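Contributing new complexes? Match this layout with zinc ion.
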Amino acid sequence: MKCVFCGHQLAKDTQTIERRIKTHLVCVKNVPVDSCHFCGEVYVDDNIVSVTNQILHFLKDQQISNNVVVDFKTFLEQSAANLNNDSKRELHNLVTA
Ligand SMILES: [Zn+2]
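Output block (do not edit by hand):
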């Protein structure tokens, strides 16, 4: 895959995505992205965006009271492992203040 802006080859990378939920800052760490080291453009796959949105929806339901950090990879592993269980309670363990 090549950068649509400058044509250079993209490299696999990870990024921390920050969003605000009400007054709290949410950091999603280790989000897989393709980045262009030439011009700095970052490309995020649709699937990755959708998982990131799942994480944010999940956190909104939790009525968080602090800034939180979620690890993208851990969230994926846990949500896959807990599809048939009460996943919300399990996933809550991933959220660290
Ligand atoms: Zn580029």
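Reviewers usually confirm one structural detail per submission. For this one: The mean pLDDT is 86.
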